[in-house]
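Internal QA ticket QA-208
Title: Verify multi-chain structure generation after dependency bump
Assignee: T.L.

Test input:
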Amino acid sequence: MSAMKGATTKTVNVGGTSFAYREVGAVGGIPLVLLHHVTAMLDDWDPAVVDGLAAERHLILVDLRGVGASGGTTPDTFEAMAEDAVAFVEALGLGTVDLLGYSLGGIVAQLIAQTHPGLVRRIVFAATTPAGAKGPASTGAVLQAAAQRAASEGKHPKNFLFFEPTPASQEAADSFLHRLEERTEDRDTPVTDETIAAQLTALASWEQDASPAGLKNLNHPALVVNGDNDAMWPTTGTLELAQALPNAKLAIYPDSGHGAIFQYHDLFVQQTLEFLRG
Amino acid sequence: MSAMKGATTKTVNVGGTSFAYREVGAVGGIPLVLLHHVTAMLDDWDPAVVDGLAAERHLILVDLRGVGASGGTTPDTFEAMAEDAVAFVEALGLGTVDLLGYSLGGIVAQLIAQTHPGLVRRIVFAATTPAGAKGPASTGAVLQAAAQRAASEGKHPKNFLFFEPTPASQEAADSFLHRLEERTEDRDTPVTDETIAAQLTALASWEQDASPAGLKNLNHPALVVNGDNDAMWPTTGTLELAQALPNAKLAIYPDSGHGAIFQYHDLFVQQTLEFLRG
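Actual output:
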């Protein structure tokens, strides 16, 4: 059984609100906190990625406020989400963490690193963009279109959101979706429409933000990863992020999109572990 | 024996000047003309790429004016190089061609497509940039630094110019360099310092050009390929090219640089053949 599949869902009191989380991998060293994408909860993390990273790292997966089994109402700003994430890390009594922020979670990670630089050692930004880049404000429309197409074609929306239409990428999509179903017991609670609406509001503001100026002070070593044809948040934004960060290494995977880290889970795990060994 | 290894070097009279070229793959269909990089001649094309593409396409490799065994003096503008390439294609009596322009050759391909759109059907742009993007003007300095480092470390300059410092990329570099030595008979003539100087002059002008404005009319289907960490001409330029072209598909390969198409020759061949089938 995969470590991800068997991980217990725990809760911690964060300022009066219960946050759901799971720990995977042996405790020790600097933990890697995984920050989820829009619409996602704990079961949306790819077991292949989680197990691969957990072979060498202590991973902490969290549902932010209002997400999945966590209590409270999802805030509609990234500043508030970042404050929640920081409070969660502090509630666990952790002094320093590494971050893996995927998509929306990558924006939360940018805010955490800017407001609490001392809390963070290294950051993996996956399929995410700096403020002002194209993509985030259209997320709601893209989710809708993918849901309709999925219904009419008998597919999962993630087939279209996270993967390319090529045969190789669609095959990877099917494998990924199968892995997400491996865990059958103690599954997390799906997010509510209210949570998604709050996340989409935050994303719309993110794209309208003037510029990623603050990133020039984000000096943490960063690994910036995406697919070469991200249909949700164009890959150009990923490159803008890597360029804006003073200490970033870029990793782009071929024939892949927003879910490139799931399509190339072995390569992503290898590059991330090497980066975190630093 | 590979088709590339056994290809005869031929010449054709182009307005009074002898141009050297080789044909690989069965004649038939629209030929694919390969346009070389700075400092390169016919033997600098990767046999793995050439043989892979020649399995399905009629390839024509050419030394432009003043390069390798071709006569004349290398011009110091891309406009003149493009005119030479067009005259070469016409001298062979070809009506329509596909182009594979690698690095400097990708700039020549941009000019050909803009000045003679009807001559070209589809274009593969590899490791190249639009006018005004960073990289080309520093090529001379980068070549010098790589040559010095190669001498001191007992390596080939292409280890540093075309590949990443990671173990996987350096291993690919060694395989690539080995493949370039497979052909032992009828090898081409190395380029002269005079030719390199003219090419570097053209490259300096290219970076100083105001903008790639003309690309919005380059409507040919294009495949734009590079590594995710091109140390010669930054990968951002590759994305700028893909964005500026109205009909481009992007393909970026991980853990690789300017020589990504050689490092990932199987994937590049597969994606290029699929693109050319179009």
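Spot checks passed. Chain A has eleven helices and eight strands.
Status: verified.
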